[in-house]
Design goal:
By secondary structure, this protein is of the alpha+beta class. Helix content is 12%, strand content 29%. It folds into two domains: 10-77, no CATH class; 92-153, no CATH class.
Length: 154
Amino acid sequence: MTTYQIHALPGPLLDEVRRSGRDTSGNPVAHVEASGGEPVRCCLRDAAAGERLILFGYEPVLPAASPYREIGAVFAHAEACDGPASSAGYPADWYGRPQVLRAYDERGWIHPSTRTHDGADPEGQIKAILDHPEVVEIHSRNIAYGCFMFAVTR
């Protein structure tokens, strides 16, 4: 049986973005009030209407320096939160949400086992990708916008 861990945005990075008000590229973060349903990457759940969020550019760390690095917009709470309820399972609010599961090898290159899923069985899709021993990490990404949702490791 394949076991895996889900990883939200790194706490030290969030602390720095909140403290500095700047993102990965040095751009100012946008402060927004949630309308409800925004995927919040610090605690891996959908925002409730009225929550204070920041929107900023994030570059996920790959297993190695790679030409496949990307920067995209992500939502996080404007103030520190408790983080995800668990790192042992797929985020409950995100079932049913189609995603791209982008697999990476140890070089940080995209692996051919990358696939999309419709949200019905994300765990099965993750486990199928991790059945490829050369896959060391998966990034879940939003299909419509391409932005980073979370990382998966063994």
